[in-house]
Amino acid sequence: MVAVLDDAWPPLDRAARDRLGRRAAAAARALGDQDVVAVALTWVDTSGITRTKAVPTARLGHAAEWGVGMSPVFDAFLLDDSITTGRYAGGPVGDLRLHPDLDRLTPLAALPGWAWAPADRYAQDGTVHPLDARALLRRETARLAAGGWSVRAAFEIEWVVSEGDGDDDGFVPACHGPAYGMTRISELPDYLRDVLTSLAATGVTVVQIHPEYSAGQYELSVAPEDPVGAADTAVLVRETIRAVTLRHGLAASFSPKVEADAVGNGQHVHLSLWRDGAPEPADGAGPVNAMTGGDGPFGMTAAAESFAAGILERLPALLAVGAPSVASYLRLIPSHWAGAYACWGLENREAALRFVTGPDDERTQAANLEIKCFDAAANPYLALAALLAAGRAGIGAEAVLPAPVDVDPASLEPADLAGRGIVRLPTSLGAAVRAFEADPVLRDALGEAVIDTVAAVRRGEIDLLDGASPEEIAAATRWRH
């Protein structure tokens, strides 16, 4: 038997099911008044692909009460929809129930007539599925909270826009202006407007949007939230962008490497650690950002430094969930602002961990840590759960950061790198998986079933693309994420 995640979310009993059913029935009536005819329930699989089952709006109450059946085999799906087998996942036997999170139920402006809700996955007996990444993230958030800490998180979303419908014709940039150039906004103004208005209509707070470096590439940043909310928003943002792009007769790709010789798409993670219930003169008692106001490097508190140090120490292992595809390692190369070296620095965009202070008068809100080596092939729930576990371990060990790096680490001589303890992050998915399996903190936090299943899926995809050229790897991955 695999341990259930009861400390993350209690089992569904009869009373809980009744409450969910009544609440969902009322929500369904409200959706019907908005001409919403169906609700898409989503979860993100181990390979980072958002999967779904949908119900007519009239069936939302039943779905919330009893769940929607689906096979647990999706935990063992590879990016090409083939299936591998691990000790805890794979095969035709079994059933799970998808229960919509009604707190996040959202009409989709980009898909009129449709609503969306992230799903929690339960077994038929009402216990949480041990491979449910959303529950894992909820548990890690609760574990931090037990120590008086909370985290605010946000994902940066990078994507490219292509002419065509994402078929075998490859990638044809839908805009041709220079990197970061205003020309790219002028080329696709209606498209970008529709992305922004659709996100606003779904309740997403967009902080900024801009053209990125690679051909046809854009980036969008959103406001920070609690970790589960941030992962939900990452899914909602990507699927909204995808829907808007298709409606404009274009195709969107979030793949880490759309073309072998071009800059890839990252999905950087921003984290800030907050002390709950601490005094804050402006507002009375309330959470205080531990990333500033301390005596540590660049104003970090001791706990924030330890949190960052815990993440830095485990970056090679964390790549198995944060840079989880074979294509990820075509992106993770030096001097491309991808964070290919295990080091940190103040506003250093070549370091895997970039410390961001924000403007002087905004540091109490803005100071945060950016993880630059993660990309959009990651399951955002699993990636955040692993990051929080690593940070929590750092706090517990009172870990200390090494000296910051204020240059491109690729510019340093090998002896200088060694003397400063700077190492290159894994250059292959296989190396990251080995580090992941060997890390005791992640194994304890995520559980044996997660470790085994992640490793099995990663090795399945390594075998799938064994011997492929970089161009073939990019082509095989291009339209999957």
Briefly summarize what is shown.
Helices cover 36% and strands 20% of the residues. With 481 residues, it is of the alpha+beta class.
Describe this structure in words.
- The chain has 481 residues and is α+β, with helices and mostly antiparallel strands.
- The chain has 2 domains: 14-131, Glutamine synthetase, N-terminal domain (Ubiquitin-like (UB roll)); 140-477, 2-Layer Sandwich (Creatine Kinase, Chain A, domain 2), CATH 3.30.590.10.
- It contains 16 helices and 18 strands.
- The mean pLDDT is 94.
CATH topology of the largest domain: Creatine Kinase, Chain A, domain 2
Spatial extent as radius of gyration: 22 Å
CATH architecture of the largest domain: 2-Layer Sandwich
The count of helical stretches stands at: 16
SSE-based structural type? alpha+beta
Morphology? globular
Mean pLDDT, to the nearest integer, reads 94
**Helix percent band:** 25-40%
Pfam families: Gln-synt_C (PF00120)
Protein name: Glutamine synthetase family protein
Domain GS beta-grasp: 34-126
InterPro entries: Gln_synt_N (IPR008147), Gln_synt_N_sf (IPR036651), Gln_synth/guanido_kin_cat_dom (IPR014746), Gln_synth_cat_dom (IPR008146)
Topology (SSEs and partners):
Blueprint: H1 14-33, E1 38-44, E2 50-56, H2 60-66, E3 68-70, E4 96-100, E5 106-107, E6 114-123, H3 133-146, E7 149-163, H4 182-187, H5 189-201, E8 206-211, E9 217-222, H6 227-247, E10 250-253, E11 269-275, E12 279-280, E13 284-285, E14 288-289, H7 302-313, H8 315-322, H9 328-331, E15 341-346, E16 351-356, H10 363-366, E17 368-371, H11 380-397, H12 414-419, E18 423-424, H13 429-438, H14 440-446, H15 448-464, H16 470-477
Parallel strand pairs: 1-6, 15-16
Antiparallel strand pairs: 1-2, 3-4, 4-6, 5-6, 7-9, 7-10, 7-11, 8-9, 11-14, 11-17, 12-13, 15-18, 16-17
